[in-house]
């Protein structure tokens, strides 16, 4: 009788453990989804200056006049530029 109870307990634990882990994973996914939805609502998008720069870049790409640059060229080794948008991206 005691062995039968231990067997049932092991079966219940074996069924509940994956269920618990799956539900925990689902809760995290739902929480991340709603956090991302909230971020999308609060994000204002691009500024006018950024939109102008993006539109100009798209025109250059569409016209086929985009010059390729070799990042390993020796002439550009010491060259460095900073973004105009204050996001501290260097490139």
TrEMBL record:
Name of this chain's protein: Class C sortase
Superkingdom: Bacteria
Segments passing through the bilayer: 6-27
Keyword terms of this UniProt record: Membrane, Transmembrane, Transmembrane helix
């Amino acid at each position: 009788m005691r062995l039968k109870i231990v067997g049932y307990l092991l079966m219940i634990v074996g069924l509940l453990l994956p269920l618990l882990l799956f539900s925990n994973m689902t809760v995290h996914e739902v929480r991340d989804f709603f956090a991302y939805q909230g971020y999308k609502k609060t994000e204002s998008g691009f500024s006018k200056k950024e939109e102008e720069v993006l539109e100009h870049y798209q025109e250059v790409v569409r016209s086929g006049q985009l010059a390729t640059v070799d990042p390993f060229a020796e002439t550009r080794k010491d060259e460095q530029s900073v973004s105009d948008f204050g996001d501290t991206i260097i490139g």
